[in-house]
Amino acid sequence: MDLWQLECFVAVAEEAGFTKAAGRLHLTQSGVSTQIRQIERDLGVRLFDRSSRSVRLTAAGQAALPYARSALAGAEAVRQAVAEVTGLVRGRLRVGMVTGCTVTALFEAVASFHREFPTIEISLVEADSATLVARVRTDETDIALVGDDPTGLTGHTVVRAGLTAAVPADHALAEESSVSLRRLCAYPLICPPPGMGVRGALDDACATAGLHPTVVLQATAPEAIAELAARGLGVAVLHASAVAEHPGLTAVPVEDLPLPVTLVWRSETTVLRAFLPHCKEAFTKE
Question: Which of 99, 97, 95 is nearest to 238 (CA)?
């Protein structure tokens, strides 16, 4: 017997008749009858009682029905598995990252994923957290790293590092092990514009503490903020990873100024399910 014969058998059983089964399968009634007779010959038993107007399962047919359904379900699972592999060959991954927040683990995850699935098209977009969350909600972006924890999306906080004040070696803060938010606000600050993760964390903390920082310069790129601070134009407020890449600056942790960074996504597509283990591995190492 083959899967097609099993499908005819299940259809006749569920429709309680050859005519309805033929319509469901887009076959002639005689075609369905031929398939049923063939499977009955193979098994050596009758599966249906045809003695009355309605077609009823025999005891053998009742015993066979759940196994026939299981076989058809298994075949469909095979088709689905092949379709998912095909999707991983031809698919694409759209990753979002909040501007000004350099998290190297995300780059490691993308690189590792690309090595395993080199034919997947990968795109990376930078924007503020609100824009990225909106893109994830509308499926314009598959997964995003944001400085937020939005409702209605699946999220996993991957970094809880605090922000740092970045200053040249000759600055008054350079010898400090940490700086309070109030003392930080006494200096002219250089930071990202409103709407970005670092700036949002700073603004929220200052509003809670009743502080009014003086932001003298703004830039979206962490490298630009660091370069301006290195020239003595103000104290840079950055994620610690951005300061580590600039040897001319000293990083001083800011007390009580956390920046939770969260991976968020809405729909687990085939490609995203393949990408998430790479994220887990990369962020576990960091």
Answer: 99
Give the integer Cα–Cα distance in Å for 222 and 112. Answer: 25
Dist CA 69 CA 255 (whole Å)? 63
Parallel, antiparallel, or unpaired for β 143-146 and 154-159?
A: unpaired
Helices marked H in the chain: 3-15, 18-25, 29-43, 59-90, 104-116, 129-137, 181-184, 197-209, 222-230, 240-244, 270-285
Over residues 95-110, the mean pLDDT reads: 82
Q: What is the pLDDT of residues 208-242, one digit of tens each?
A: 899 999 999 999 888 899 999 999 999 999 877 67
The domains found in the chain, sorted by start residue, are 3-88 (1.10.10.10), 92-159+262-285 (3.40.190.10), 162-258 (3.40.190.10)
Tokens read off for 88: 């991983």
Does residue 286 surpass a pLDDT of 60? no
Query: What amino acid is encoded at 279 in this protein?
Result: C
Exposed / middle / buried, residue 45 (Cβ in 10 Å: 0-12, 13-18, 19+)? middle
Q: Which two tokens stand for residue 129?
A: 């957290």
Tokens of 277: 């283990």
User: Token digits for 268?
Assistant: 């687990």
| Neighbouring residues of 10: CB distance < 8 A, sequence distance ≥ 6 | 65, 68, 69, 72
The span from the CA of 81 to the CA of 248, in Å, is: 53
C-alpha to C-alpha distances, 7 to 32, 40, 90, 187, 221, nearest whole angstrom: 10, 14, 31, 76, 61
pTM equals: 0.52
Distance CA(253)–CA(237), nearest Å, equals: 10
